[in-house]
TrEMBL record, chain A:
<protein>
    <recommendedName>
        <fullName>NADH-quinone oxidoreductase subunit J</fullName>
        <ecNumber>7.1.1.-</ecNumber>
    </recommendedName>
</protein>
<keyword id="KW-0472">Membrane</keyword>
<keyword id="KW-0520">NAD</keyword>
<keyword id="KW-0812">Transmembrane</keyword>
<feature type="transmembrane region" description="Helical">
    <location>
        <begin position="6"/>
        <end position="24"/>
    </location>
</feature>
<feature type="region of interest" description="Disordered">
    <location>
        <begin position="168"/>
        <end position="201"/>
    </location>
</feature>
<dbReference type="GO" id="GO:0005886">
    <property type="term" value="C:plasma membrane"/>
</dbReference>
TrEMBL record, chain B:
<dbReference type="InterPro" id="IPR039428">
    <property type="entry name" value="NUOK/Mnh_C1-like"/>
</dbReference>
<dbReference type="GO" id="GO:0048038">
    <property type="term" value="F:quinone binding"/>
</dbReference>
<comment type="function">
    <text>NDH-1 shuttles electrons from NADH, via FMN and iron-sulfur (Fe-S) centers, to quinones in the respiratory chain. The immediate electron acceptor for the enzyme in this species is believed to be ubiquinone. Couples the redox reaction to proton translocation (for every two electrons transferred, four hydrogen ions are translocated across the cytoplasmic membrane), and thus conserves the redox energy in a proton gradient.</text>
</comment>
<keyword id="KW-0830">Ubiquinone</keyword>
<dbReference type="GO" id="GO:0042773">
    <property type="term" value="P:ATP synthesis coupled electron transport"/>
</dbReference>
<feature type="transmembrane region" description="Helical">
    <location>
        <begin position="29"/>
        <end position="49"/>
    </location>
</feature>
<dbReference type="InterPro" id="IPR001133">
    <property type="entry name" value="NADH_UbQ_OxRdtase_chain4L/K"/>
</dbReference>
From TrEMBL, chain C:
<protein>
    <submittedName>
        <fullName>NADH dehydrogenase subunit H</fullName>
    </submittedName>
</protein>
<dbReference type="Pfam" id="PF00146">
    <property type="entry name" value="NADHdh"/>
</dbReference>
<feature type="transmembrane region" description="Helical">
    <location>
        <begin position="131"/>
        <end position="151"/>
    </location>
</feature>
<dbReference type="GO" id="GO:0009060">
    <property type="term" value="P:aerobic respiration"/>
</dbReference>
<feature type="transmembrane region" description="Helical">
    <location>
        <begin position="171"/>
        <end position="190"/>
    </location>
</feature>
<keyword id="KW-0472">Membrane</keyword>
<comment type="similarity">
    <text>Belongs to the complex I subunit 1 family.</text>
</comment>
Amino acid sequence: MGLTDLLFFALSAVAIVSGWRVFATDSMVRASFLLLLSFVAVGLIIVMLAAPYIGVATIFMMTVEMMVMALFMVMFMMNPAGLNPMMMVHQHRFSIVAGVLAFAGLTVAILFTSFPGIPVDPAAPVVHDLGIELLGPSMLIFETAGVTLLATMIGSVILSSRSGRFGLADQGSRPPGLEPDGEPAGRQPEQGGGGHHHHHH
Amino acid sequence: MTLASVLIVAAALIGIGLYGALSQQSFVMLMMGLELMLNGGLLAVIGLWANTMGGAPEGQLLAIIIMAVMAVDMAIGFALVTAVYRKRQADVTESLTTMKH
Amino acid sequence: MELIAALLLLLFLSVGFAGAALADGMLPALISGQARPSWRRPIAEAARLLQTQPIRTEAPDALLWFLAPALYLALAIIGLAVIPFGPGLVTIPSEVGIVVWGSCEALTIVAVFMFGWSANAPLPLIGAYRYVAIALPAMLISMFVLIGAALPAESLGFTEIVEAQRTVWNVVRQPAGLILFLMLGLAISLRGPFDYADPADLAGGTTADVSGPALLAWKIARLAMLVSVSAVTATAFLGGYLGPILPGFVWFLLKTALVLVVLVAAGNLFARVPPARMMGVIWTMLLPLSFLMLLAVGLELLLWG
């Protein structure tokens, strides 16, 4: 077993264990950092698999994504610091069975398939080839991805902007209730406002 | 680092991701499950590209498309979470029962 | 060759770090008109921090709090490792050097957020939040500007980028690009106008509840990142190791020192504006400007390249 194999097994262990811990940690911010760790390990494996651009770009992109995710975690979630135990799951047993079945099924499929063995030439200019492919023969596909991303940007702005179809943003920006459908937590604004005059008799 | 071992790691990531996507109540945790599945998919694509395609660039192109899918997933997911939170003050899937009818 | 480069990296980092500490300590005094500022100040400050009592917050994430400065320092070193110090002198020759550096920038933001969040206290978290809001778009700008530097080289590797500057330096191609990249430098080394993470108006922000050796580690990592980002600026815009007569490494060192002094001076001369206003400036003015620079370089290469 060479150094490459050792490194590969270590990175795989990091990717899988941190991927599992994502759903077992108490803090959602920690969960997004763990997911980032999993992505970084996969990115490094991809670099070892002779695709440096894809691997490093994965790390780059996922870092930014997980950073945004951590921000949303602190904004939306209760208990972001993980001070209380957290286990928010439904259909738990079914999910475990589905996950294990997916893994077992895929593993069996992998072990019983004979793949063609044409490895990539280590001297091949893979990054250069990818660039030529992206802006040459597959330009339309690449552009489709670009247009999809543009549509995504417009869609997410419409969904989340102040005057979106779900009403004004600040109208709904109340803290969640202490119990389901209950009064919002925190201090309540006074009814009637400051400009309202009371009549005294 | 054989192709089979790379693919099994990818399968494990997909399995864990599927578990997360099915079991988590919170939207954002659910999205983490989806991302983990895409992560496994990415690894499998590059593993197959590096070992069975002889370096044909289309394999890397597919990986780029997967990354674009991840970005779309995150952006639209967070926009929906924001919209739902504004409308219902809720961040768990159970609160969206009206979508059933 | 890579071993020599690795040794040079250590040497460069130590010299650069010492220079950065000196510049950081002496430039404010020089700017304010003191004739002979003391060079011992940074050392005295370090000695003081080593003896200061370490404090704790309530229920911090101790592991992440401990690891964040180490991650920050590691990112500075990885950034230096993909930069050529001389012809063929690069620790990790990478054909995707720019993307590696971009990942270092992005992970720096994560490190700062981690540091602020894991203290589990209000001021550090506010600092971390503000920093992410400003640094993420600043990082986007730097990536567009760096793509503009990679276009003439037709490669993402730093070695090729330096070689492509033999005819003309990238600073001539996109002068505004250099300034935008220096802003990123201020942002990821947490200083001056872009220091939204641990400024005085938040009573120290991410470092509000850190003291003693932990604070010293954080400051060391900040200075190391300053050296790293200066080296990247010198490589991507000022021709890196290119220059007449003197050996390449010396030129590289001189250019890095120049950028470093400019960064420290800018950090002292420019004031910080409120975060909301800075957000507006970044998204509506600086980001479009970086697109324009990229377009200009592309057109230039298309028409006369």
